[in-house]
Amino acid sequence: MINKRAYWTLSLINFALLLFLTTTAYLWEDLAFFLGILLNQYFLIAGTAALVKGKKKSFFLVLKFFVLIAVFAYAARAMPENLIICVSIYTFQLIILAISIKRDNKKIKDIKI
């Protein structure tokens, strides 16, 4: 489902960019923010996988929003002058996730119109 090599490589580059832009004075805050983003994306992937398998509801998708709110509330409180950088890093991380998703062509070919 995900190209893990591309995802982790690009995520590490994104984290290095976060450290560079916010300076290393915010190392622990950056680490907590970025781990929260990765946890948020894990819940997104797990929740979507549950919906694809036929479940009508997924607890992961609800939990994802609470994690996202908590991560940005923490970033706004811990490093308010770098909040726009955090939003940009989150946006780039979503793009990285989208790039890393593998498509299953067999399922697409099996669909009859």
The low-confidence runs, each spanning 5 or more residues with pLDDT under 50, are none
Counted by DSSP, the helix tally is 5
Question: Using DSSP, what is the number of strands?
Answer: 0
Distance between the termini: 24 Å
The backbone outline, from C-alpha atoms, is flat
Mean pLDDT across all amino acids:
86
Share of residues in strands: under 5%
Label the structural class: mainly alpha
Helix proportion: over 70%
Gyration radius, in Å:
16 Å
Major sheet characteristics: none
| Elements, N to C (H/E) | HHHHH
Describe the model:
The protein is mainly α. It has five helices and no strands. The protein has helices at residues 4-22, 27-52, 59-78, 83-100, 105-110. The chain is flat and about 45 Å long. The two termini are 24 Å apart.
Annotate the secondary structure layout.
Elements: H1 4-22, H2 27-52, H3 59-78, H4 83-100, H5 105-110
